[in-house]
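Reviewers of the previous submission asked for a worked example of the structure-prediction workflow described in the proposal, so we include one complete record here. The input consisted solely of the amino acid sequence. No template or homolog information was supplied to the procedure at any stage.
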Amino acid sequence: METAPRTAAATVIVAIDGPAGTGKSSTSKAVAAKLGLGYLDTGAQYRAITWWMLTSGVDVEDRAAVAGAVDKPAIVSGTDPAAPTITVDGADAAGPIRTQEVTSAVSAVSAVPEVRARITELQRSIALTAERGIVVEGRDIGTTVLPDADLKIFLTASPEARAARRSGELKGKDASDLAATQAALAKRDAADSSRKASPLAKADDAVEVDTTDLTLEQVIECVVTLVEEKRTA
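From that input alone, the workflow returned the following structure tokens.
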């Protein structure tokens, strides 16, 4: 599905995709802040609807039940890279959506076509009305959500590097050892890459950036350069 043309020629839409642990969120927020763009964490939206399903008593393994409830929660995403927000029915969901319970259920919920259709529509609306332009990060942005994005970037990293980064992000009771974290990431990758609805994939015209041996600052500078080149092309 093609996206509608934008009228503001000065704006730029940047799609950053890739699996967990590649530095998508940190890179996307920093790039948006440096360039004065908006920022959208699409994964947070899927986590938000998953959290709502769990707290509302919807069986997340029942695809029909999930599909039937998909339009009920009101999900609102703030796009300020310095302080991105997400609310569900007016309540701050930034903390609750990061629990292990949500992490374990989000792939199943995200695989339901009705969920993807609802969240994709929301994401397109946010991106295409961003007056300053926006950096949108996720797993299917360049391939499905915004196939006409001005710049598409696909971040990768070795399984070992991704597991180390993700383990470092986890706190308290959710902290895992490297082997367990790597196994969890592999399971998530398999689920996201094999789902029928908008699987995790690199767009044909995306620029691939391997972050394995790069510092976060180096990745940020690389992406900033790519965006600036696109803006002046």
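The mean pLDDT is 88. We consider this example representative of the routine output the project will generate in years two and three.
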